């Protein structure tokens, strides 16, 4: 009797865990976001001291670095809108993403890096 109760509990826990996995982002995306860095050293430095604070932090409400699904509809807005939102701010996204010295090219490169896709003009 005892062992079948244990099996029932095990089953319940397994079901709970798998239900959890379905409704949440897989943890792989979070750890990827925490460790991903642009290949270019200058961009990596900018990313590390600005964008990363929010875009690698699931609590910030920002689309996470490397989360192509979260970025896809944003990227579809095109380069002009993305730049406008990066430079002038957009809801929780602060103007210039805290990088006041960033150029438009750098913003686009950072967005392409974070979204893991190329930005249509
Ligand atoms: C203080 C937090 C914070 C920082 C720092 C930050 N972002 Fe964001 N960003 C956000 C949040 C939150 C959103 C989601 C806004 C929304 O959709 O409501 C966002 C969204 C965006 C978007 C999508 C806008 C759209 O049109 O959907 C782009 C592009 C972006 N960020 C670029 C950057 C870049 C580039 C940097 C670094 C230079 C950066 N962000 C730094 C918080 C931040």
UniProtKB/TrEMBL annotation:
<dbReference type="InterPro" id="IPR036909">
    <property type="entry name" value="Cyt_c-like_dom_sf"/>
</dbReference>
<keyword id="KW-0349">Heme</keyword>
<keyword id="KW-0249">Electron transport</keyword>
<protein>
    <submittedName>
        <fullName>C-type cytochrome</fullName>
    </submittedName>
</protein>
<keyword id="KW-0813">Transport</keyword>
<dbReference type="InterPro" id="IPR002323">
    <property type="entry name" value="Cyt_CIE"/>
</dbReference>
<feature type="domain" description="Cytochrome c">
    <location>
        <begin position="38"/>
        <end position="118"/>
    </location>
</feature>
<keyword id="KW-0479">Metal-binding</keyword>
<keyword id="KW-0732">Signal</keyword>
<dbReference type="Pfam" id="PF13442">
    <property type="entry name" value="Cytochrome_CBB3"/>
</dbReference>
<keyword id="KW-0408">Iron</keyword>
<feature type="signal peptide">
    <location>
        <begin position="1"/>
        <end position="19"/>
    </location>
</feature>
<dbReference type="InterPro" id="IPR009056">
    <property type="entry name" value="Cyt_c-like_dom"/>
</dbReference>
């Amino acid at each position: 009797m005892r062992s079948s109760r244990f099996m029932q509990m095990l089953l319940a826990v397994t079901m709970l865990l798998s239900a959890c996995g379905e409704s949440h982002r897989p943890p792989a995306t979070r750890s990827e976001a925490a460790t991903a860095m642009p290949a270019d050293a200058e961009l990596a430095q900018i990313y590390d001291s600005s964008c990363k604070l929010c875009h690698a932090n699931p609590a910030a409400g920002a689309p996470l670095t490397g989360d192509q699904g979260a970025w896809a509809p944003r990227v579809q807005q095109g380069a002009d809108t993305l730049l406008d939102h990066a430079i002038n701010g957009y809801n929780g996204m602060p103007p210039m993403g805290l990088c006041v010295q960033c150029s438009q090219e750098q913003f686009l490169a950072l967005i392409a890096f974070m979204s893991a896709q190329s930005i249509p003009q």
